[in-house]
Task: structure prediction
Amino acid sequence: TSFSGSKVQVRMAKTVFVGDVGVGKTSILNRFCRDTFDDTYRATIGVDYEMERFWILNVPFNLQIWDTAGQERFKCIAASYYRGSNIIVTVFDASNLESLSTCQRWMDDAVGANSVVPIKFLVATKMDLVPQGHQDKIHQLGLRMANLMQAEYWPISSKSGENVELFFRRMAALAFEIG
Ligand code: GTP
Ligand code: MG
Result:
């Protein structure tokens, strides 16, 4: 934390969410920021923004979160928000492995816009849709891809809320250390 006069400068970090259309990026933010979930799909147009305040060791810390659109026609707008990211979160749909195959490209594009390599996360969402017996397979594939990317792997569900809070706390904690 830095002080200038009596004004406290709150530390902050920038996070960008990327990944294919409909994988569940916006739903993750709706779960964490508002504790809501909606089964109806509403495409993100270009980019959305959220700000979340965390308290880490009694120090306020703001996470700026940019939720980009997966639709191809918004690619240019979305990509213009990649610069200056401290964290990149690439999301895939655990019930649709086609969305895992594009993760490397999403990550490379977002990382490539930054001069300092950001902290990287690979999130497998919609885990509630994966049958119990198939979950280990998803974790294996997710971990392998995460290793390739040098990212941390997080399986979550926005519908059930599984792991969502823990994932955000982890993001904030890692960003805080480098902030
Ligand atoms: P774009 O903004 O177009 O890039 O899509 P997005 O990645 O933001 O996807 P969005 O969060 O809008 O979710 C797409 C659809 O998947 C919606 O119908 C959601 O209700 C559904 N969905 C998202 N997360 C989950 C989840 O964890 N479980 C289940 N069962 N459905 C989910
Ligand atoms: Mg969206």
About this structure: The two ends are 9 Å apart (CA to CA). The mean pLDDT is 95. Strands lie at 2-4, 7-9, 11-18, 47-56, 59-68, 87-93, 119-125, 152-155. The helical segments are 25-34, 75-79, 98-101, 103-112, 135-149, 164-178.
